[in-house]
Amino acid sequence: MTITTSARVAAATARPATRPPNRMRAWATRAPLLPALVFMIVVTQLPFVATLVISFFDWNALYPKDRHFTGVDNYRQVLTDPDLRHSVWTTVLLTATVVLVSLVVGLGIALLLNRKFRGRGVVRTMLIAPFLVVPVAAALLWKHVLYNPEYGLFNGLLHYVGGPQPDWISNTPLLAVEASLIWQWTPFMMLILLAGLQSRDHEQLEAARVDGASDWQIFRHLTLPHLRRYLELGALLGSIYIVQNFDAVFTLTSGGLGTANLPYTVYQSFYQAHENGLASAAGVLVVIGSIIIATFALRVVSSLFREEVSRA
Amino acid sequence: MRSQSRRTPRALFAVAAVGTLITPLLAGCSGAGGAGGVGGGSAHAINVLMVNNPQMVELQKLTSDNFTKKTGIKVNFTVLPENDVRDKISQDFANQAGQYDVATLSNYEIPIYAKNGWLHALDSYVKSDSGFDQQDILAPMRQALTAADGKLYGEPFYGESSFLMYRKDVFQKKGLTMPAKPTWQQVADLAAKADGAEPGMKGICLRGLPGWGEVMAPLTTVVNTFGGTWFDKDWKARLDSPEFKQATQFYVDLVRKHGESGAPQSGFAECLNDMTQGKTAMWYDATSGAGSLEAAGSPVKGKIGYVPAPVEKTDSSGWLYTWAWGIQKASKNAGDAWKFISWASGKDYEKLVGEKAGWANVPAGKRSSTYDIPEYRKEAAAFADVTRDAIASAKPNDPGVQPRPAPGIQFVDIPEFTDLGTKVSQEISSAIAGRESVDSALKKSQALAEAVAKKYEGS
């Protein structure tokens, strides 16, 4: 796939202007890459093909004798199941909220970190820390250390100032999950945007200052357009990962109170219902949705690379 | 430079890349590694797949120096967390792969697996193994591990029921009396009076965390004793019956008024925590909770009283749960597998654990003789008899006021229940959080139960 194209490009560049196809040389370029391609197909594509096949079967693990082919029945069931439709909506809402808020907050922090001050390295390291916490540990931390109405830090602080004692997760379940994810993903966005900020053209900035542009104007007309690609990259990479998020939903609410997202629903139909066919069909649909997102993501990334190349 | 017109390779690349990102999600489900490997089939070796509960971990430690030394049978353990173990067991047993000879199964799985023909009947082994003393196993356990065909398919390793735990000191201070056999109405009144007995103390802790084995377990016992049932004997779903509604409304109201805060996220572990930290005056849950409350170093050790599960229309309402050993039908080492089960579930093993690891760690709740061991009685004085009576009075085949189409107290013993129970539990959890009414939660749940019942109607 990718290899053949790059090989083709390589072959094309290696090819003299005359016509001989020179297959041997092209294969010589390809051959060392073949084991890697075969390995990748075996470990990533074959399980997916298996999943695809299973998704056309009515197969409940507890009724092994009843396994039979049902065509697209599983897909019909998945698409007409109100719970599942709801979980699709939850996934969209969760992903969009987390990505957008993380981006905005990340941008703010990145702008602050872009200034020179003492101890900048330490602050940056500390700000990255949440992203390095194991997701399930982070979710547990939020559930018990922060949100818990009895001994959580939030209510402890409120108690200290004499405020109310809300039951965070029960009152705002989706928001509670989003908040913990935003905390985890803001550093990721910050890193990407910080890299973008550091690659700004300083001469351009100075010229703008000489011309009397205000800070806001510089941000609005120079920084933001320059950051557009980085914002897109952050949003798309973030989306791909957060669509798949399972830990926070599983740990904080066990999918209750309307927080079940797609991965959690797939998990449930596989583990609780033992519906291998249904779970596979739902999984395949998640893959299709992610492919759509990823196609955009890769397009952005490749245009980024193109820009880098043309700049170089 | 690539031209923009050549989309296909890039689309393919996208597919490949996404495949890389996502397939682990789908394929990784079965890839959980376990501790210990599966050994080769030497003359005398068996492979055991078990859940990673403390009692099993203790068993693993004691096996080679005792069981293997005595019999020469090597035991290869694979130990996994509950969800993974269930998945691995169902895959191995469903395909009759024969990779594992023995597995830990609960009384929920054993009748279902037996019906599918995945398990070895144990009756002949029990008959010829006089030292095992099958009659010593508590009757409800024997019943729960006997399948529809009347044959025995599992031997319990340890078992539990449910009962009500309360703070004797708090009750005394407030001048409250706990009846010897409380009704739910009495418990609700006591919860109202005990609420706020100490700063930050709630009246009662009841599970609200979604899950067929979390909120659904205590709630279903309440439903049973209020006269409700999931299905009547003709497989008609009855979640919309007045009794089911009344029980659910009662449970939800009690938790919302006098229960722990954060109830929709509280399961067994959270309630145990609340009880230990003095955040609640009462707790209705598994008898196994008592061991932790009375453990050395527990701040409430010795302050807790134990009474049977509260009732309304039935004589008893405690649930029944056990982790038991089952032998896979395809196993080629059934004889050796039975020897292992006979040792692990036998009387001598309980004494061995008592001497080696302390009497509090004995896998109790399955044999009546356990409760006659003086050392154990001393260790578990506060809750031993109540626990035994709770298990002994459990009626897995007749837990309510009406005949049932399938056995099970806190669950309905059909393969679909894990999914149905979990989906219903999410509605109940929403009701406890005050996000929807009990009526609308049960209306949705009834529709789910009806869909399941369709499969069984007329059977």
UniProtKB/TrEMBL annotation, chain A:
Its main location: membrane. The keyword Cell inner membrane does not apply. SUPFAM superfamilies: MetI-like. It is a multi-pass membrane protein. Coiled coil: none annotated. PROSITE patterns: ABC_TM1. Keywords: Cell membrane, Membrane, Transmembrane, Transmembrane helix, Transport. Belongs to the binding-protein-dependent transport system permease family. This is Sugar ABC transporter permease.
TrEMBL record, chain B:
It holds the Pfam family SBP_bac_1. InterPro entries: Bact_solute-bd_prot1, SBP. Keywords: Signal. The keyword Signal applies. PROSITE patterns: PROKAR_LIPOPROTEIN. Residues 1-27 form the signal peptide. SUPFAM superfamilies: Periplasmic binding protein-like II. PANTHER family: ARABINOSE-BINDING PROTEIN-RELATED, DIACETYLCHITOBIOSE BINDING PROTEIN DASA. This is Sugar ABC transporter substrate-binding protein. It comes from Streptomyces cynarae.
